[in-house]
């Protein structure tokens, strides 16, 4: 076999402190006093890096668009300081609607820096724009702008087309960014600009600056461009008259001209990054001594002292040995205050290279296809693969992949349109456009001013290792128990396993069991005792942040996705609708033959419970029934449980006191068929609920039912506790949510005859493997799958990361 040449990623010496993994983030070695003021900045950066290493997340999805009734398959990747985060265990993923309400959320187990997962979209899922949000607990300590978010569109497969195109995108705005941050009087300044429409997407513009030269401006890529201007001191703010491609003209004001301070020019030549300090006043002795510091991922890579009085105002940073990514270059005055800043992107040939070594493509229905992938010569690769119908599944060209996310967008504050485009090649045009992104976006993972003063973030969320159960115990007097222990019998209904644990109670009355790993939900039967063996102990468990019902705050507004090609969308929705019918048939165990329908109808589980609870006008009815005696619900209350489960029912705001709306009005609320209110239902324990019935408007069973009704029934004898929840004498029950059970991707094997194969095959995702096995001897991996009934072309997308932190993506159509 021919040797496959690969380029290994050049690495800085990332150091993950032991204090991080131990959860003791405040313990840091005392550093010796700095030799001079610039060394203090270096020590501040080093201390920040040791205490607050960067964790990043990326999700690889099987598709870019979804229809109600489908499953969102994804693979989460977690990195720490640019390397696979092999110590990470917990990945939180949420699906948010356009109002930032959580529709679904799950905790996924991370192994070897990867976490496979899925969200099942009910057929009643409301169509519209949603966001996937993924993060670790450690990431919540920092700016929420750096948590992973991705916008997705969910369609109604019953409709033949998507939503109408947004006709409000006529307005536009232009932002101006002087290089280095300041517009310096009497000096030649480079000013970058970015033009966007009112949806946040780039538009092309032309125009002129109102200066003596009437300087022309013109966007060169995705609404971005630059121009040169030499403003005069003491003049009024300059203005730009800009015209959009649609002919609309607007006037914008440039940033104010500065007569003090300094700016910073940067020339990215690839192997070398040249820089030049630009003082506003060369005679200002306060600016004689300057320092330039460059860092990547909180690691110092360059430092130089400048002496303006002696003409030393420039230099270069060697970049050929640095890893690809964003370099932050900051100019400081002799008081340690930052004067100017510039970002530069290091683009070296250190991508994870992959290709298709062999392919045997079968385009006939239900025939087998095989692809052999060739991967880098590394100790370990973490790979995920999706194969979809290349004609029926629309593609979002603006969706970021693992390369553009981990190397580019995860390190800047600001929206980057079509980020993958900047990694297509290394042509000068592409690199110049990438530099425009650097000029028009800011890097703000930390503030130099704060870390120089030893002002560090508060750690509210420790670095997690597994699931933690903790709380506090009190005695009859209400005071914390000192000493003693908490005995627990832990049962897992998902696999009928059980274990015993005992947690000591410390001097503050607190207990803590860490590093627990269990799927689905654990039934924890507990009994506390004090140091004198007395069982008269009250136990209060801490509520984990992920179990709280709170509305998520997204730092950026939700952008309406660009319209999808209508012909492609029609095919996608028609196929998704047919696929939903097949799935319903499988779930109902209905087998369709050519001319005979064999229906094995089984009694719905909720029928028995409904007969026991619902009566009169509350029995039957048009709506939804949820039998909680057959579930292990982990929702905060019934309102969180119902979110996204009922089409048309809007539950928003604080789930302890939510706003309810259905067809423009509030649905009636009933508890055990007696009229009640939100405050009563919101405080009702979900574990005490047997049945929830949601009636579509209008409901005739009680007063105020014109906008539908929600009827809640508490458990009766025989249903509390349920059969799989036996009580244990002397112990109380606490339910703790664990790691989500990830569904297995359905991939039929048509070489074997099965009853289900008589059904039509309408799969749009033909193959999904979040953990593709790699042969470590040949450095190859095999992908095998059977075609559906109609696909003629296939899109193969492979994404992954090596043990050295090198990331890569392969996308190819066959």
Automatic annotation (TrEMBL):
Gene3D superfamilies: 2.60.40.1930. Residues 56-134 form the Macroglobulin domain. The keyword Hydrolase does not apply. The chain crosses the membrane at residues 12-31. GO terms for molecular function: endopeptidase inhibitor activity. Pfam families: MG2. InterPro entries: MG2. This is Macroglobulin domain-containing protein.
């Amino acid at each position: 076999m021919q040797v496959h040449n690969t380029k290994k990623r050049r690495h800085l010496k990332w150091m993950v402190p032991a204090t991080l993994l131990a959860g003791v983030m405040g313990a840091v070695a005392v550093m010796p006093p700095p030799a001079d003021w610039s060394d203090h900045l270096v020590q501040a950066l080093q201390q920040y890096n040791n205490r607050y290493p960067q964790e990043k997340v990326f999700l690889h999805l099987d598709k870019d668009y979804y229809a109600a009734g489908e499953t969102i398959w994804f693979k989460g990747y977690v990195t720490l300081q640019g390397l696979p985060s092999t110590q990470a265990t917990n990945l939180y993923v949420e699906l948010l609607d356009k109002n930032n309400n959580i529709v679904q959320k799950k905790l996924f187990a991370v192994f070897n820096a990867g976490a496979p997962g899925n969200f099942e979209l009910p057929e009643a899922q409301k169509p519209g724009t949603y966001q996937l949000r993924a993060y670790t607990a450690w990431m919540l300590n920092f700016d929420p702008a750096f948590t992973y978010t991705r916008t997705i569109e969910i369609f109604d497969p019953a409709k033949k087309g998507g939503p109408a195109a947004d006709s409000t995108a006529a307005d536009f705005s232009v932002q101006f960014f002087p290089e280095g941050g300041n517009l310096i009087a009497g000096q030649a300044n480079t000013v970058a600009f970015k033009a966007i429409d009112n949806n946040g997407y780039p538009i092309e513009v032309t125009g002129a600056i109102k200066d003596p030269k009437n300087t022309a401006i013109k966007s060169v890529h995705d609404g971005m461009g630059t121009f040169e201007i030499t403003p005069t001191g003491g003049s009024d703010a300059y203005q730009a008259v800009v015209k959009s491609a649609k002919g609309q003209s607007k006037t914008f004001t440039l940033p104010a001209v500065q007569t003090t301070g300094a700016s910073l020019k940067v020339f990215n030549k690839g192997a070398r990054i040249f820089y030049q300090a630009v003082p506003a006043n060369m005679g200002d002795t306060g600016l004689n001594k300057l320092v330039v510091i460059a860092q990547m991922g909180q690691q110092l890579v360059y430092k130089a002292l400048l002496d303006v009085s002696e003409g030393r105002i420039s230099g270069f940073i060697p970049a050929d040995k640095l890893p690809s990514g964003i370099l932050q270059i900051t100019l400081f005055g002799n008081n340690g205050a930052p004067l100017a800043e510039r970002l530069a992107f290091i683009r070296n040939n250190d991508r994870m290279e992959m290709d298709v070594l062999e392919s045997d493509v079968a385009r006939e229905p239900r025939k087998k296809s095989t692809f052999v992938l060739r991967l880098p010569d590394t100790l370990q690769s973490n790979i995920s693969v999706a194969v979809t119908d290349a004609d029926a599944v629309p593609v979002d060209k603006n969706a970021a992949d693992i390369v553009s996310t981990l190397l580019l967008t995860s390190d800047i504050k600001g929206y980057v349109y079509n980020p993958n485009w900047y990694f297509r090649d290394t042509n000068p045009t592409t690199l110049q456009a990438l530099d425009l992104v650097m000029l028009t976006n800011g890097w703000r993972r930390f503030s130099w001013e704060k870390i120089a003063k030893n002002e560090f973030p508060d750690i509210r969320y420790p670095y997690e290792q597994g699931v933690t159960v903790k709380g506090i115990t009190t005695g009859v007097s209400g005071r914390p128990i000192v000493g003693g222990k908490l005995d627990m019998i832990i049962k897992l209904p998902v696999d009928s396993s059980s274990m015993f644990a005992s947690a000591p109670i410390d001097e503050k009355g607190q207990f803590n069991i860490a590093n627990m790993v269990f799927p689905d939900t654990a039934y924890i039967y507990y009994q506390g005792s004090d140091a004198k063996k007395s069982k008269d102990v009250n136990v209060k468990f801490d509520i984990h942040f992920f179990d709280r019902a709170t509305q998520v705050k997204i730092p950026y507004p939700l952008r309406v996705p660009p319209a999808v090609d209508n012909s492609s969308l029609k095919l996608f929705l028609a196929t998704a609708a047919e696929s939903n019918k097949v799935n319903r048939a499988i779930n109902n165990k209905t087998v369709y033959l050519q001319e005979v329908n064999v229906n094995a109808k089984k009694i719905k589980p909720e029928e028995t419970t409904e007969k026991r609870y619902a009566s009169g006008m509350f029995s039957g009815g048009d709506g939804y029934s949820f039998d909680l005696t057959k579930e292990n619900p982990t929702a905060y209350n019934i309102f969180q449980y119902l979110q996204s489960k009922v089409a048309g029912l809007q539950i928003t705001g604080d789930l302890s006191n939510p706003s309810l709306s259905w067809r423009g009005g509030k649905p009636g609320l009933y508890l055990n068929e007696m009229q009640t209110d939100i405050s009563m239902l919101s405080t009702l324990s979900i574990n005490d609920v047997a049945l929830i019935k949601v009636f579509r408007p209008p409901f005739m069973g009680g007063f105020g039912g014109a906008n539908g009704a929600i009827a809640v029934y508490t458990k009766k004898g025989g249903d509390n506790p349920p059969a799989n929840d036996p009580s244990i004498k002397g112990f109380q029950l606490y339910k703790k949510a664990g790691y989500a059970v990830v569904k297995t991707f359905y991939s039929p094997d048509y070489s074997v005859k099965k009853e289900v194969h008589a059904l039509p095959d309408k799969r749009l995702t033909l193959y999904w493997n979040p953990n593709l096995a790699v042969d470590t001897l040949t450095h190859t991996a095999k992908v095998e799958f059977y075609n559906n009934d109609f696909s003629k072309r296939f899109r193969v997308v492979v994404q992954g990361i090596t043990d050295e932190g090198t990331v890569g993506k392969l996308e190819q159509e066959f």
